[in-house]
Design a protein that fits this description.
Layout lengths: L4 E4 L10 H9 L2 E4 L3 E5 L2 H6 L9 E4 L2 H13 L9 E4 L2 H6 L10 E4 L8 H5 L6 E6 L5 H8 L4 E11 L14 E4 L2 H10 L9 E5 L1 H9 L6 E3 L7 H12 L1
Parallel strand pairs: 1-2, 1-9, 4-5, 4-7, 5-6, 7-8, 9-10, 10-11
Antiparallel strand pairs: 3-8
Helix pairs in contact: 1-9, 7-8
Length: 248
């Protein structure tokens, strides 16, 4: 069945150079964008209920930009002055560079890995006596705690924000007007059913990014028609383009 309309469960790209716009022109289709999830920050009461005291930690592990935003937001709200001696270990260089929004980067001890959880371990082991805080959302990739525990790192998790379902149904009453839906997280799959409790896939194509998203879709009874990343399809736009090419 030829695809005519696609809903991507993310905010619309900024600017005019997105590969999605190239796909629209190439295949003469319509692509809409709407975020199925959004981040909701914890408050100071939530932190205290977790028995988290920021002053007890000498180093922080950051695995996302959201974690950075909410740690520094809550530090300010709780009147905790982050000491200059605080060390930072980040999962990637992009996350490490994002710290510049809050600290004088060149004056702090900052380490970062390539991308995966295991990439951080050598940096953590170089500072074995530190007490590490791991700010996260309510959803945490199990690879991270597994890697930290295996390396015998002294770490504590703090849930500082949550990923919650957005109100999609009030904006998109008829989800069936789309013949293809694209998801990027298990939370996006959950949001689909939170918004459309009686959703049936019928002839709708489903695209997913990431193994955990694919697994969540299949566990929800959905058939995944295209998937990324793979060696041949490292991005969702490449996977989508190839899928549409096969149908043409």
């Amino acid at each position: 069945m030829k695809v005519k309309s696609i809903l991507v469960s993310q905010p619309a790209p900024v600017g005019d150079s997105s590969p999605y716009f190239d796909i629209e022109k190439k295949h003469k289709i319509k692509i809409d964008f709407f975020p199925f999830i959004h981040v909701q920050g914890a408050d100071t009461k939530d932190v205290r209920l977790q028995k988290i005291d920021f002053s007890n930690f000498t180093a922080i592990i950051f695995t996302s930009k959201n974690a950075i935003d909410h740690f520094f937001r809550l530090s300010e709200e709780m009147r905790f002055i982050v000491p200059d001696s605080m060390k930072y270990v980040c999962q990637s260089e992009a996350i490490a560079l994002y710290l510049q929004r809050y600290i004088v980067y060149r004056k702090r001890k900052i380490y970062f890995g390539e991308k995966e959880a295991d990439d951080m371990i050598p940096h953590l082991k170089k500072n074995p006596d530190e007490k590490y805080l791991l700010p996260t959302s309510d959803v945490l990739n199990q690879d991270i705690p597994d890697a930290l525990d295996k390396a015998k790192i002294d770490w504590t998790r703090a849930i500082l924000f949550r990923t919650v379902s957005s109100d999609v149904a009030s904006k998109i009453e008829n989800i069936y007007k789309y013949d293809t839906l694209v998801f990027f997280s298990p939370s996006g799959i959950k949001s689909l059913f939170d918004n459309y409790a009686s959703f049936k896939q019928k002839k709708i194509n489903i695209g997913t990014f990431g193994h955990s998203t694919k697994q969540a879709a299949e566990e929800a009874g959905l058939t995944v028609n295209f998937f990324a990343p793979t060696k041949e399809k490292p991005s969702m736009t490449k996977a989508l383009d190839d899928f549409l090419q096969q149908l043409s």
